[in-house]
Specification:
By secondary structure, the protein is α+β, with helices and mostly antiparallel strands. Helices cover about 20% and strands about 35% of the residues.
């Protein structure tokens, strides 16, 4: 291969607590009746105040310990600001510079894959597109969502698939999540770039990966796509791409955001 792939993952896991992250509503993102498990807190009514779910914090720390992380004795929540119909407050309660766990690793395929951080946030609602209409179901809004970010230590689709499968086994063994990808309980996003002569390439993010097979196939496709662009002497655009499962290709979605775009505070 003329180019060296550099791959990192962002893994989101819905924790299986009884209630949501910042309110007493039932944690059941699979509830069939729309907008059933909601309250003034998770729908962001004026004056409603969040209270952190202690069990979600414990489960996040448990994951950090299992993945050889350093547990921070001081942590905090931040506002991650962006505007989308499924985010009722106009910001997401997340963690930025002081997550619960940092600097861990998981051994896969005979090598250590570094884990940059594990933090806790709230999930968004769900958009349902019906012809020309878009509807919002807030049953999932406020569900505790643990995010794990890896170092860019992966180098192939097969390796990334194996890593994600090992993670699922760990989360199930710890009983912190069912981590079913088909049900959205575990979601994987890929950051990938190609380099040549030790010069780092432009990073592209791939979303909409809802199976281990999709993780592997999307990475393999993106390696081939970017290699062809570079062979033609053109430049890779930093962007977010989605995986089209039927066509087995990635498609452009939007320009990639940077941390400052979210105005964390």
């Amino acid at each position: 291969m003329a180019y060296k792939p550099t791959i990192g993952l962002e893994v989101h896991v819905e924790l299986n607590t009884k209630s949501k992250m910042f309110c007493p509503c039932k944690n059941d993102p699979l509830e069939k009746k729309p907008n059933f498990n909601i309250c003034p807190v998770c729908t962001a009514q004026p004056g409603a105040l969040p209270v952190a779910n202690e069990e979600a914090v414990k489960k996040t720390i448990k994951a950090g310990l299992a993945l050889n992380c350093r547990i921070n004795l001081e942590s905090k929540f931040d506002r991650k600001n962006y505007f989308y119909p499924d985010l009722p407050k106009g910001y997401q309660i997340s963690q930025y510079d002081k997550p619960f766990a940092e600097r861990g690793y998981l051994q896969v395929c005979g090598k250590n894959i570094g884990i940059t951080r594990i933090h806790l946030e709230e999930d968004t609602g769900k958009l349902i597109h019906d012809g020309r209409d878009s509807l919002v179901d807030f049953n999932r809004a406020g569900v505790p969502l643990m995010e794990m970010v890896t170092e860019p230590d992966l180098s192939s689709g097969k390796e990334a698939r194996k890593f994600a499968q090992e993670l699922q086994l760990i989360f199930r063994y710890l009983n912190i999540s069912s981590a079913d990808m088909e049900k959205g309980q575990m979601r994987v996003e890929v950051n990938i770039s190609l380099s040549k002569n030790n010069k780092l390439g432009t990073k592209v993010e791939i979303k909409n990966l809802n199976s281990f097979r999709s993780v592997e196939k999307a990475i393999d496709y993106e390696i081939a796509r970017q290699s062809e662009i570079l062979d033609d002497g053109e430049k890779i655009i930093q962007e977010t791409r989605g995986w089209h499962d039927k066509k087995q290709i990635t498609v452009s979605q939007r320009k990639k955001e940077e941390a400052y775009d979210y105005r964390y505070f």
